[in-house]
Amino acid sequence: MGRQPWRLILHGPCGPAWNMAVDEALLESAAAGERGTLRMYQWCRPTVSLGYFQSARQPQLESLRKQDRVALVRRLTGGGAIVHHHEWTYSLTLPAGHPLARQHQALYARVHQGWVEVLQELGIAARVVEQPPPGPEPEPFLCFLRRSPGDVVAPGPHGTVKLAGSAQRRRRGGLLQHGSLLLEKPAWPQHPVGLAELLGRKVDTQTLLQDWLRRIEALFEVQLVPGQLTAEEKKQALRLMAARYIQPQWTLRRNR
Fold first, then answer.
1. Closest CA to 19 of 207, 180, 191
2. CA angle 230, 168, 222 (to 5 degrees)
3. Crossing angle for the helix pair 16-31 and 231-240, nearest 10 degrees?
4. Are 101 and 187 spatial neighbours (Cβ–Cβ below 8 Å)?
């Protein structure tokens, strides 16, 4: 028997609201399907995505938004705020009946193991966090200053830095997991460094991506088949973007 086919969607830099709307549309689509979809994308401008439960009232965030230096969007998944700037972002959607959809830690582990292997080939001593030490209370605003089991970390000039992390959302018979690999330090005060700073040079992002995709095929024992959004997925993403992701009521609704 051949490997199970998963759809692979490669998107270039897109707007914040569109990126989040497409991920949710793919989550809804997964509930009615039988195969997975892996989407890779980037961002057309520096953007802070707030975790589902996060407050938007943060002094640093308000200052940067007044200067029009960052866009703001709210994710469907939880966790800390992510500054999307120089990174690869992925989303993986699966039907709830898929074996891996019932093993959320295994899903994190395989995706992140792929990043670890790619980074180690570049000479970065990357590893997956098994049990993080107790962190400060309350948790830092930024996701990349937090540590959770499964995060990808590496030694940095001033201690361990986080290079990749993911979050999940289950809904309507489907599972969404999305996350980021930090290619360079984003334009944000006190943000930790990224891959380029650790290497002392920029990396070929397309080669890095292709190396990771090959590992995903091996780790999940699947075949990634290039595809596109369906017409219905595009329509649903546009509806979600208009009704939710461009609306201040959604983005700022936990503004306290």
1. 180
2. 60
3. 130
4. no
Q: What is the CATH number of the domain that holds 118?
A: 3.30.930.10
For residue 171, tell me if it sits in a domain.
yes
* Cα-based angle 23, 39, 250 (whole degrees, multiple of 5): 20
Query: Is 223 in contact with 4 (CB distance < 8 Å)?
Result: yes
pLDDT in tens, the chain (256 residues): 578 999 999 999 999 999 999 999 999 999 888 689 999 999 999 999 999 999 888 777 777 776 677 899 999 999 999 999 999 999 999 998 888 887 778 899 999 999 999 999 999 999 999 876 676 677 888 899 998 889 999 999 889 999 999 999 998 789 999 999 999 999 887 899 999 999 999 999 999 999 999 999 999 999 999 999 999 999 999 999 999 999 999 998 765 5
In a domain, 222, yes or no: yes
Tokens of 101: 């959809």
256 occurs within a structural domain: no
Domain, as residue range, for 48: 4-251
Q: Do 139 and 80 contact (CB within 8 A), yes or no?
A: yes
- At 192, list the tokens: 């930790």
44 in catalytic set = no
Residue with tokens 């028997």: 1
Helix (H) or strand (E) holding 224: strand 222-226
Catalytically annotated residue among 118, 143, 164, 182: 143
pTM score, whole prediction: 0.93
CA-CA distance, 238 to 233, in Å (whole number)? 9
Q: Which residues, at least 6 apart from 189, have a Cβ–Cβ distance to it below 8 Å? A: 60
